[in-house]
Design a protein that fits this description.
With about 1000 residues, the chain is an all-beta fold. The chain contains one helix and 91 strands.
C-alpha cells in the first residue's frame, strides 16, 4: 500500500515497542495541503481499578480523516493499541503506569495528556477460623452462636436459621431470644462476606430441653488457661465445671472437634513451632444444656539445640580421609559451623566434616562444632586428629595429550600422602633431568616425539608410587590456513566459508559430530567470534579463536585445546561496564559492553591487530564513553596509543548535532576497508534523541578521518543503523553498502533526486569513500517508507549482502545488493543504479513481496531480524517464527518462492545462517535457534529440508550448551563450529 504524498505535509511521530531489535520513531516532512491536523477535545482520564480488573482509557479527537491512534504505556508503544479506546489486560502490577495516545492524520500528529492507572491491592476473601458450635439449653433460656474469621476487613455477617436470614443478625455473634422445646433441632449458620467473596459456616444445632426435673445446666468454674511450651514438648489444657451430673466434654482445636478428647483435661501430642497460635476450647454438656469455654491460646517456642552424640577423636594414616560428626536435637532447622583449632572452617556447615586427605601436618589439630538454631547454640567437645605417616597415593593420573608439531605438551599429576612429596617425571621409563614438579611441560615437539610415554614417580619418607603412562601424540604442524577476520567471513557479508575441508555432509551427524568443549567467559557473547590459524603466541603456533563479551572483555583461546591464552578488560580505572543507560532499554541485558563484531588485520602491527569498540561508564560522574581499541592479537596489549574516545559532530539545518555516547550502541559489525575502520551506530530502543552516524578512523593511527550522518535533520528520530548486528558491506572499489531503519525521509526531492534534507529512512545506501571522505553516492528508498516507519516495519532490521557478479538473461553483468526487513519483502537492488525514491513504485532490479512472512499485513510470523547468506546460486534467509528458507537465483533473479525449507522454525529473532563448503562441494548451512536450551542445526545446502544434525539429538544432553542468545551468528572454520552463548562459546567438531 502506498500513501498519497504529492503536495502534502506530514509529521509522524511513532514510538515502537521497546526490546525489538530494530524499531523506531519517524518524522517525515512533505509539502502543505488543506488537511486539518488532529486536535484532542477529550483527554484520557486517570483510572482506578482493583487488582485483576481491566482499565479503559479513551480519547476524543477532531481533524481530517482518517485519524490514526497509537496508545503508549510509560512512553513505549503498545502493540495493536490503535483505536480511540484502549483497554488493558487484567492487571495486578501496573499501579502507577501512565498511558497516553498519539493521534495522527496526513496533516500532523498530536499527543494526549498522560493518564495514570491506580491498581488497588487484591482483597483476601474471608476464611472461617473458628466455627459456630452446637448449643444445648433449657427451655426459656437464650443461646449464643459465634464465629471467628480471617481475611481483608471490613466483613459483613448474616446469620441464618434453617437457611433463612435472621433480620438484624449481622454481627460475629448471634444470641437468640428465649427458646422453647419447639425450637429444638434448629440449625444456625452464618454467611461471612467482604469485597473478595463470601463463605458460609458449618451448621450449629440447637438442642432445647424441657424445663423442670431439677436438672441444672453446666457452668464453667475454671476456664482453660493459655499454654507456652518448647518445641517437642506437649501441652495440657483443663477445665472445671459445675452442674447436674453426668457432665460430658468435647475439646476443639481452632473450632474443630478433636476426636477422643472427651475428658475435663486434654493433652496434645509432641508440638512443633508450626502449632504456635492454635486455640483450644471445650464444650461441657448435660441433660439441661451446654456451655463452651474460652479459647485458650497455645504458644510453641523453639527449643535450643542439645548435642546427643559428640565428635570423636580420629586417628588416620596420611593421605586417608578423616571425618568428624555430631548428632543434636532441637527445633529445626539446625545450623552447624565446624572449627579447626578454634577458627571457623569456610563451608564446613554440615553435621559431618571430612578432610579428604589428611596430612601429617594436620596431626594434633582439634575440631569442634557449634550447633545453632533460633533459640540458641551449643558447642561440642573438642576432638583431636592424629595423622600417622602415609605413603603417597595418586588421586589424579596424567592424561594423554595430543598436540601439533611445534607446540609443547603438559602433563600433570595429583597425589596425597605425607609431606613432603617429591616427583620425578620419566619419558619412556627414563628420568627427565629437572622434571621434579607435580606437572611437566615438554620442549617444542616434533613428529619424532609422537608415541612417547610420560609417567611420574611420586615419593615420600613412607614409600613411592608410579603413575600411569600418558601417551603423547604429535600431529602435523599447524600451518597458516583459513582465517575469520570479519563478520560473515568477507566484505560482501556472504556468510560462506568455501575452504572447509574437514566437515562434510557425510560426517556431520550425532554419531561422529558434537560438542567438544566450552570456552567460559564473564558475560554474554553477542559479537561473532573471530579466528586466526597458526598464530605465533609466545613462540608456539596455535589456532586461536577470539571472543568479545558484553562485560567489555576480550579473550583469546586455543581453538584446539580450549586453553585460555589471554584476557583483557577494556574498562578503564574509575569506570564500570555500562549497566543499562538512563533510557532503561532492554534490547541488550544485563550490560552493554562490546556488542559489534570486531575486525582483525593480520598484517598490522608486530603480530596482527584487532579493532574493537567498547562502551563503559564513569562511576563518579555517570558519564558514558564509547572507545575504539587496537589490540595485539598475540598478547591483548593496547596498540597505537589507544584507546580512542569516539566523538563527532555534523552540520544540520538548525546548527550542529553532536554524537552523545550514552544515546548509542555500536551494534553493526565493524568494517575495515582500504586501511580505514568504519563504525555505524544504532540507538537504545529508538529513544529520542538519536540520528544515523557513520564514523571512520585510520587503521594505522586511530585518528578520525570522516563523519557522515544520514539523519541530520530528523529532529532526533533517526534512522539509526541496526542490520541485526551485520556489518556494512564493501565492493572492490571501496564503496560501502548498508540498510537504514525507520525514521525521517523527505519525499520532497532535490534536483539530484535525493531527499532535500538528506534524511534517509528505510533505505539502501551506497557510500563513496574517495579521498578519505564519506558521502551518500546513491540510494534506494521503499515507496511506502512513511507507512512502514509508522507501523515500525523498518527495512534496517535485516542486514545487507552483496551478491557475486551475475549475468542476466540478456548477457549483461549485474552488480547486486540484497536486503530484507520487517515487512517480509526481499529487495534486490542494482548497485550501479539503485533507483532512488518514487511514491508510486519501487524502481529496483527485483522485489519479492511477502515471501518472508506477513508483518506488513499484521501477521506476527515472519519478517527479517537477521542477516542472509549466499552459496552456489542460493540465498538463505531465517525469518522470525518461520523455517530457514533457500531461494535459488538464476539469470541474476531470485525464484519467486523458496526452493526448500527446513522443518524446524526459528523463534525471534529468526536465525542468521552461515555456510561451510569445500569450493562448491559439501555445502552445509548452519543455523542457531534462540530457545532454552539453544539448538545448533546443520542442513544440506542443496536442500535445507534435509537436516544433517542438531545439538538436541545426542543422548543425555551431550551437546547442549545453555540458553539461547538472540544475536548469535555461528562461525565454521577448520573443522570446528563456534557458537556464542550467554556465558561463553560452545565449540563443536568431529568427536574422533
Amino acid at each position: 500500500m502506498t500513501l498519497a504524498r504529492a503536495g502534502s505535509a506530514v509529521l509522524l511521530l511513532l514510538v515502537c515497542v521497546a526490546g525489538l531489535s530494530a524499531c523506531g520513531q519517524v518524522a517525515t516532512v512533505h509539502g502543505a495541503d488543506a488537511a486539518q491536523a488532529p486536535v484532542i477535545t477529550t483527554q484520557p482520564q486517570d483510572q482506578v481499578v482493583n487488582s485483576g480488573e481491566q482499565a479503559s482509557f479513551a480519547v476524543v479527537a477532531q481533524g481530517s480523516g482518517p485519524l490514526t491512534y497509537q496508545w503508549r504505556r510509560n512512553g513505549a508503544r503498545i502493540e495493536g493499541a490503535a483505536a480511540p479506546t484502549y483497554t488493558t489486560p487484567a492487571t495486578n502490577s501496573d499501579d502507577g503506569a501512565v498511558f497516553s495516545v498519539l493521534v495522527g492524520n496526513t496533516a500532523g500528529m498530536v499527543e494526549s495528556e498522560s493518564a495514570t492507572l491506580t491498581v488497588n491491592p487484591a482483597t483476601v476473601a474471608p476464611t472461617i477460623t473458628a466455627q459456630p458450635q452446637d448449643q444445648t439449653i433449657t427451655s426459656g433460656q437464650t443461646a449464643s452462636f459465634s464465629v471467628q474469621v480471617s481475611g481483608t476487613s471490613p466483613f459483613s455477617f448474616q446469620w441464618q436459621r434453617d437457611g433463612i436470614a435472621i433480620t438484624g443478625a449481622t454481627s460475629a455473634t448471634y444470641t437468640t431470644s428465649a427458646q422453647t422445646t419447639a425450637d429444638s433441632a434448629a440449625s444456625f449458620t452464618v454467611v461471612v462476606s467482604n469485597a473478595g467473596g463470601s463463605v458460609t459456616s458449618r451448621s450449629a444445632i440447637l438442642t432445647v430441653n424441657g424445663g423442670g426435673g431439677g436438672a441444672v445446666a453446666p457452668t464453667i468454674t475454671t476456664q482453660p488457661a493459655d499454654q507456652s511450651v518448647k518445641s517437642g514438648q506437649t501441652a495440657t489444657f483443663s477445665v472445671a465445671a459445675s452442674g447436674t451430673a453426668p457432665l460430658t466434654y468435647q475439646w476443639a482445636r481452632n473450632g474443630a472437634a478433636l476426636p477422643g478428647a472427651t475428658s475435663a483435661a486434654y493433652t496434645t501430642g509432641s508440638l512443633a513451632t508450626s502449632d504456635s497460635g492454635a486455640s483450644f476450647s471445650v464444650t461441657v454438656r448435660n441433660s439441661a444444656g451446654s456451655v463452651s469455654s474460652r479459647a485458650a491460646r497455645l504458644t510453641v517456642s523453639a527449643s535450643a539445640p542439645s548435642i546427643t552424640s559428640q565428635p570423636a577423636d580420629q586417628t588416620v594414616t596420611a593421605g586417608q580421609p578423616a571425618s568428624f560428626s555430631v548428632s543434636a536435637t532441637g527445633t529445626a532447622p539446625l545450623s552447624y559451623q565446624w572449627r579447626r583449632n578454634g577458627t571457623a572452617i569456610a563451608g564446613a556447615t554440615g553435621a559431618t566434616y571430612t578432610i579428604a586427605a589428611a596430612q601429617t601436618s594436620d596431626s594434633g589439630a582439634t575440631f569442634s562444632v557449634a550447633v545453632s538454631n533460633s533459640a540458641g547454640s551449643v558447642t561440642s567437645r573438642t576432638a583431636t586428629l592424629t595423622v600417622t605417616g602415609g605413603a603417597p597415593a595418586i588421586t589424579v593420573q596424567p592424561a594423554d595429550q595430543t598436540v601439533h608439531a611445534g607446540q609443547t605438551a603438559s602433563f600433570s599429576v595429583a597425589a596425597s600422602g605425607s609431606a613432603p612429596l617429591s616427583y620425578q617425571w620419566r619419558r619412556n621409563g627414563a628420568a627427565i633431568a629437572g622434571a621434579s614438579g607435580s606437572s611437566y611441560t615438554t620442549a617444542i615437539t616434533t613428529a619424532a616425539d609422537s608415541g612417547a610415554q610420560f609417567s611420574v614417580l611420586v615419593s615420600n619418607a613412607f614409600g613411592s608410587i608410579t603413575s600411569r603412562s600418558a601417551l603423547l601424540t604429535v600431529t602435523s604442524a599447524i600451518t597458516q590456513g583459513s582465517d575469520v577476520v570479519t563478520y560473515k567471513y568477507d566484505l560482501a557479508r556472504s556468510g560462506a566459508n568455501l575452504a572447509e575441508k574437514t566437515l562434510t555432509t557425510a560426517n556431520v551427524h550425532s554419531a561422529t559430530f558434537g560438542k567438544l568443549h566450552f570456552l567460559g567467559t564473564d558475560g554474554k557473547v553477542d559479537a561473532q567470534p573471530l579466528y586466526l590459524s597458526a598464530l605465533n603466541v609466545n613462540g608456539v603456533a596455535r589456532n586461536v579463536v577470539f571472543v568479545a563479551t558484553e562485560n567489555d572483555s576480550v579473550y583469546a583461546f586455543d581453538a584446539d585445546s580450549g586453553a585460555q591464552l589471554w584476557k583483557v578488560s577494556l574498562v578503564p580505572a574509575g569506570e564500570t561496564v555500562n549497566d543499562q543507560p538512563q533510557q532503561s532499554c532492554d534490547q541488550i541485558q544485563p550490560t552493554i559492553g562490546i556488542t559489534s563484531t570486531p575486525v582483525i588485520d593480520r598484517s598490522a602491527g608486530a603480530h596482527g591487530t584487532m579493532y574493537v569498540v567498547a562502551m563503559s561508564k564513569s562511576t563518579a560522574s555517570a558519564a558514558w564513553h564509547q572507545r575504539l581499541h587496537a589490540l595485539d592479537v598475540a598478547t591483548g596489549a593496547e596498540l597505537l596509543g589507544g584507546p580512542r574516545e569516539i566523538t563527532a559532530s555534523y552540520p544540520s539545518a538548525n546548527g550542529t548535532i553532536t554524537f552523545d555516547p550514552q544515546q548509542y550502541e555500536d551494534r553493526a559489525a565493524l568494517l575495515l576497508v582500504n586501511h580505514t575502520i568504519y563504525t555505524s551506530w544504532s540507538s537504545h530502543c529508538d529513544n529520542k534523541f538519536y540520528t544515523g552516524w557513520i564514523i571512520a578512523y585510520s587503521q594505522s593511527t586511530l585518528q578520525q578521518t570522516a563523519v557522515l550522518n544520514v539523519a541530520p535533520n530528523s529532529g532526533g528520530v533517526g534512522p539509526a543503523i541496526w542490520m541485526a548486528g551485520g556489518g556494512p558491506a564493501a565492493d572492490s572499489a571501496g564503496n560501502i553498502y548498508l540498510l537504514t531503519a525507520n525514521g525521517a525521509f523527505e519525499e520532497a526531492l532535490d534536483a539530484s533526486g535525493f531527499p532535500n534534507q538528506r534524511d534517509f529512512a528505510n533505505s539502501f545506501l551506497k557510500l563513496s569513500t574517495g579521498g578519505g571522505s564519506l558521502a551518500v553516492a546513491d540510494y534506494f528508498t521503499i515507496s511506502n517508507t512513511s507507512l512502514e516507519s509508522g507501523a515500525d516495519l523498518d527495512l534496517g532490521s535485516g542486514g545487507a549482502m552483496l551478491l557475486p557478479d551475475m549475468t542476466d538473461s540478456g548477457g549483461t553483468v549485474r552488480h547486486l545488493v540484497l536486503g530484507a526487513g520487517k515487512d517480509g519483502n526481499v529487495y534486490l537492488v542494482n548497485r550501479d543504479s539503485m533507483g532512488h525514491f518514487s511514491p508510486s513504485a519501487n524502481n529496483i532490479w527485483q522485489q519479492l513481496t511477502q515471501v518472508l512472512g506477513g508483518r506488513l499485513t499484521g501477521n506476527q510470523n515472519g519478517g527479517l531480524w537477521s542477516t542472509p547468506a549466499y552459496f552456489n546460486g542460493h540465498v538463505y534467509f531465517g525469518p522470525v517464527a518461520r523455517p530457514l528458507a533457500s531461494f535459488s537465483i538464476n539469470n541474476a533473479r531470485l525464484a519467486g518462492s523458496a526452493s526448500s525449507s527446513s522443518t524446524p522454525v526459528f523463534p525471534y529473532p529468526g536465525t542468521s545462517p552461515v555456510v561451510s563448503a569445500n569450493g562448491s562441494a559439501n555445502g552445509i548451512v548452519w543455523a542457531h535457534q534462540n530457545t532454552n536450551p539453544a539448538v545448533l542445526y546443520a542442513f544440506d545446502a542443496a536442500n535445507v529440508g534435509r537436516e544433517l544434525y542438531d545439538s538436541s539429538q545426542a543422548a543425555g544432553g551431550r551437546d547442549q550448551f545453555g540458553a539461547g542468545n538472540k544475536f548469535i551468528t555461528p562461525v565454521v572454520i577448520d573443522g570446528k563450529v563456534f557458537v556464542g552463548t550467554t556465558n561463553g562459546v560452545a565449540v563443536f567438531g568431529l568427536l574422533n
